[in-house]
Amino acid sequence: VSPAIAPDGPLAPGATIGILGGGQLGRMLALAAAKLGFRVHIYCDDAHAPAFHVAAAQTCAPYDDQEALARFAESVDVVTFEFENVPEATALSIADHAPVAPSPRALAIAQDRLAEKRFVSGLGIATAPFRAVDDEQTARAAFQELGGPAILKTRRLGYDGKGQKRVESADEAVRAHAAMGGVPAILERHVAFAFEASVVAARNRDGHFAAYDLPRNEHENHILKRSIVPAPLGFGHITEAMGIAQRIADALDYVGVLAVELFVGSDGALLVNEIAPRVHNSGHWTMEACLVSQFEQHIRAVAGWPLGDTARHCDAVMENIIGAEAHDWLARAGEPAGLHLYGKTEARPGRKMGHITRISPLGTLKVADH
Ligand code: AMP
Question: pTM for the full model?
């Protein structure tokens, strides 16, 4: 018998939350769910998934195994995701058996860069100028219309800079598209931004919205290296950024945590780069700096609970531990900082193995330190 109070009511402690995906985000979601008294069932196609270690139940099966998906969905009270590249068909078939949050529609939009940019600009929110690229003709025309430099990206399955190529001419755009196998793509004008930032925010089943303070995000080799809070942004820009995230969340009737990645111009102008319909690496600092972390917030939202307090109680610098850096775990363990290791055995180059968050009293991290 499920301890859920009612199909649409808040899930009571003891209920089971199903998570599709078993990486570090699933692992930290499972730990946060346990804090609130929930059980977690992880579904992942990788037998070594880090989230399996901390979950009450595990299913290891491919994402298109309809029978395993149905059994999984029947065994839980709600299903959520820790990565956005869940096939829409998978999300829809799960929705036949259990409530799903965020919705399959939100996933479908966020996993297609063109649909995502059209959706965001359709809300009147600024993005880098973009064009669809499907073949040689559209690649050439897109570059000629946008001007260079530009970035060609596959519409689907890109992350951490994968499936992207900077191009300086129409010929180069055509060649880059061919090198990507001619798959559906998007060409974006290259933006000369001052820095990158993100809004990590949540919306619950009642439509309540809460955003965390904005970090400034620094990438190395296309992978997030550091998130620093606060970002050097004034009150007006922070309010504007949170408003953008709220409009996106409302338009999607979104339930859960989402991240909106932004380019910030030297004049403070904000452009949306992409939406992540899930907890996000640039929100890990909330585990040390806020009463309720992004992981707990996501669990609260999908369980139909009130959202928690997003106030930030200290300044913070979150740094990813990538590849061989993980071998230095003992030195990091000696630091007065929040250390998180994901339980991955193989420290492959570029692989996110853990993160560390160093905090300092509120207001002590100056923009000059960034
Ligand atoms: P994405 O996978 O779309 O988030 O892109 C990965 C990274 O590439 C971003 O975080 C930016 O640093 C850079 N990038 C992506 N699109 C653009 C653009 N239109 N202009 C400049 N830099 C970009």
Answer: 0.95
